[in-house]
Each structure stands twice: as structure tokens, then as C-alpha cells.
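for ur thesis appendix - Elongation factor 4. copy paste whatever u need, i formatted it the way the template wanted (i think)
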Amino acid sequence: TELANIRNFSIVAHIDHGKSTLADRLIQSTGTVADRDMKEQMLDAMDIERERGITIKANTVRIDYRANDGQDYVLNLIDTPGHVDFAYEVSRSMRAVEGSLLVVDASQGVEAQTLANVYTAIEADHEIVPVLNKIDLPAAEPEQVRAQIEDVIGLDASDAVLISAKSGLGIPDVLEAIVTRLPAPQGDRNAPLKAMLVDSWYDPYLGVVVLIRVMDGVIRKGDNIKMMQTGAKYGIDKLAVLKPAMVDVAELGPGEIGVLTASIKQVRDTKVGDTITHEKKGCETPLPGFKPSVPVVFCGLFPVDSAEFEDLRTAIEKLALNDASFSYEMESSAALGFGFRCGFLGLLHLEVIRDRLEREYGIDLITTAPSVVYHVHMRSGEVQELHNPADLPDLTHVDHIEEPRIKATILVPDDYLGDVLKLCQDRRGIQQELTYAGSRAMVVYDLPLNEVVFDFYDRLKSITKGYASFDYEITGYRQDNLVKMQILVNDEPVDALSMMVHRDRAEGRGRAMCEKLKDLIPRHMFKIPIQAAIGGKVIARETLAALRKDVTAKCYGGDVTRKKKLLEKQKAGKKKMRQFGKVEIPQQAFISALKMD
Ligand code: GTP
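the 3d part is after this line
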């Protein structure tokens, strides 16, 4: 296809503002997918996976469209992950296209992820077409939202397209706006091949499928290619475009977007943002700005039932096949037995993986306290990355410890602003900005990531009744007064409950943990001290009184079978306990103690 007749774009929106619904309408109204094959949320890979039982990551689609000018255009829509955890992937995908549709729900207005995503699009030099969705709703206020886009984002919204993705109203205007207002891609067909690796996924039938955007040159089936960052070399087996089902093509030229397969074994062999060129007569300089995504939040995952360890291993290996950003290694804990230390791009990523392990693979898990990655500066000058508080080196060798900081943007209705400011202050936040976007306040805070990984988002949602939106990016590392807090039960440290905390917050958190554990650990024949300690110093203490729990006490009379049954039940209950020194700690205690209220 001629460059002038190609338009490449993405859709940026806050969650639930109608991105998927709009994509569905664009696909449907152009006849890309026959009506009888049209499923709701065509671009939702998970749905398709569920329905057909195979993986088609159909989040990219090529649409053929005859415009009002009588010419035929190829429109390539690349879907971008919606969440902050995948910020790097979002910014990469955006560099593969020239423009964006900015979808804003006309009844809600601009939200935190609207801002985060639109700024990424602006950074990628996109031409942006504002689209006001859901104008069918009585609560829609398109004029106010138009003004808000201009005030808050600084984007001219006078030509915003008004639509209802649900009813289909305004969809032809969106298609025309894509053709007339977004720029055609540029590129040189005669230059050496230069293509961007935009995304990759594992398909059970085809193996690893790689999504590419050709910048310069032409890529053909059978070509020998190399990945410039990893140095890996492959022969291309298959070249296709996504409509959204794969349709084979012989070649892809400048400006085009498609997929290739090349007997690549695992998704981790492909790095998002890498440059693909020909093995011979390749291009000299790779595309700029490549950086591999690294996990920022770590936690231990242990099976509740230790007999399920092998099942957990198999499940984790399977998940990792399709998710290169998730890391894992075996870990053993005195309290929890064998499990895995896993690294994630962020909290949502952690939750998604944990949910999938529990739901899709049916494994009950104990998740240890999530920890961020600390930089431990040793007296020797060496810097160690700390993923697990249990591995903190002897403090006499440590000079100082640095923690990751984030820039958090929160949009919230005026009424809840006070509570939000208090929450941020309580979490060691430093206010950077406080402005208004219509009737909503926008606050920007500098916060330690450590204070956000526990339960910040849950707290924010509950204090604002779900009306706040939140987004963050990691800004860098800073030194602070950080210590390792240990929990001792009957004078024995329980490694799974160790955590890094700020010195000023240690007492509070230690006390809360001890109080919780006191309620969660059953009484024993002897009294049990439960302590929080920093180094050798105890900072909080509770004592669990001794008691003999006689479960048969309430069995009056001589009903022996009933008595036996109760004793058996008690025995079975014990299996769900972990023997710790002389003390038995129920599994539930680990899960509950780590949840902060
Ligand atoms: P995620 O996929 O969760 O990120 O959300 P999204 O932005 O893709 O939104 P989605 O398309 O799933 O739409 C969210 C909800 O809004 C769905 O219940 C849609 O049916 C509804 N919706 C989308 N467009 C319209 C519209 O024009 N009018 C009305 N009334 N509802 C709409």
C-alpha cells in the first residue's frame, strides 16, 4: 500500500470510557468482520481466548476503508495496554503509530488515565483527534468536557467528534477524521530494513508471534532477520496482517503493521522496542530509546497446601511463557516451605497473575508482603538490589538504603479532596501540585512506592467512594531512613512476615501486626510473646495467654462418636497450620496479617 493511503493510530482513554466499544464499531462498520462473526468486544483477547480456546491476541487490527474522497485506505489500529504498570509497552506501541483518538466519556470527563495516556501520545508526537463518547446518555455534557480538554490538557477540542459508540452514532465521522486529520506514515522503501518489535505473544499453534511496524525497507517471507538489541537471528516462516484473524501476506513495506513467526521459542527471547533488520545488509543504527522493562514489585507466592508446589511450578512456567515482564525464582521459607519469589511491573500486574494462578489453575496461594526493589549501598561502594527483605545484608556493612519514588496523579471530586490529601500525607507524600479541572481537583504527589504497594489504591477508592482516579510513574531513587522490621513469634523470627519500613512508621505498623497476629494465632498450652523488632530492639509486643482449648467440653453425655468426630475435625484443622518452633500458626494468619487496614 502507498504510504499516502495508510493511517496508523491508537485509541487512548480512561478505563470504561468506551475504547473497546469504539474499536468494535470501527471494525463492524467497515465490514472488516462480517456481522454474523461480530462478537462484543472484538478486541478483547481474553474473550476470544475463552470462546475459541486458543490465543489470538487480536488487539491490533487492519481495517480497509473507502473514504468520502473515493480512495481506499488501510487503517491500522494498535491497541495499547490500559494500565500504568505497562507504561513502557504503552509508550512503545505509541511510537509505532502517528496519531491517536482521545476518547473521553462525555458524562464523566477527563480522568487520571486520560491524562497519563494523552501525555504519552503527545510525547510520541501524535496528531490527536478528541472524541467525546456516550453522548446518548442524559448526563452527557459534551460542551463542558470540551472545555475541560482545552483547559486541562491544552488541546484544541473545537473539532471534537461527538459519538455514541454504543448506538453507532457518529462512527462515520470518526473514520473520516482518521483519514483527513491524522498524518500518513513516512518511510523509505529503498533503505535497509528497519522495523520495530511492538509486541509479542505465545500462540499454542504458531509459537511466538511478533507484532512489527515497518519503518524503512521491505520485509518478506523467508527473509533472514536479526534483532539488534538481543543479537538473535531467525528466518521468517510466516508474515501476516491481522483483520483481526491472520491473513498471510508476501511482504510488508514502510508504514505497514503486521505479524511474523520465526520459530522463536519463548516470548522472553523478544524484547519490546527492539529493532528488527535483515541479517545481511541490515541498517546501521537501531531505533532510539530502547529499554527493557524490569520488575519493580516483588513478593513470594507459596502454595497453601505444600503438596501443590509442583502444580504451582507448572502453572508459573506456563504463565511466564506468555508474559516476558514477569520474573520468578524458587524460594524457600522456614514458615511457608517451598514457593517462588516473583517480580512484577506493578501492583495490578501482581494481582492479575495471582488471580490467574488461583482461578485458572486452581491453586490456593499465600502471598507474602509485596516489596519494592531497594538499592542497598554498601560501605565498600558496591550497590546491591534488594528484592526480599529477608536478604538484607548485615547492617554494619551497609552505608545507606535508597527506595523508589513515584509521581502520583490523582483526580478527585472536591468533596473528597481533604481525605485524599490526608492519605497522601500519611504515606510520606510530598505535595507537588494542586489544580482544578472543572469541579475536580487534580493533585500531584511525590510518594515512596513502598507506601503505595500495600493498599493505597484500595484506601483511595474507599475514602472517595470510587470517584477518584489514580495513575503513577516511577521517578527515581532516594535515600531515606529505612529499616527491616521482623516479627518474632515465641522469640523466633518469622521470615515471611519481615518487611522494610520507614523508621518513623515502624512502631505503628509493628503494633498493628502484633495485635492482628494475637487474634489470629490460636492459644497454646503456654503463653506466647508476639513481637515486632528492628535489629535486636523490640518496638511492639503482645502476649497470647496460655489456654488449653478443650474442644470436647461442650459434648455433654456420653456420645462417643460425636466426640471422636470433633477430635478428627480438630486434627484436620491442624493440617492447615504451620509448625513454627513450638508454635502452630494458621495459614490464614499470614494472609490476614499482611493486609493493612
Ligand atoms: P476497558 O476495556 O475496561 O478498558 O474499558 P473500555 O474503555 O474499553 O470501555 P468499554 O468499551 O468496555 O465500555 C465501558 C462501558 O461503557 C460498557 O458497559 C459499554 O457498553 C459502555 N459504553 C461504551 N460506549 C458507550 C456509549 O456510547 N454510550 C453508552 N451509554 N454506553 C457506552
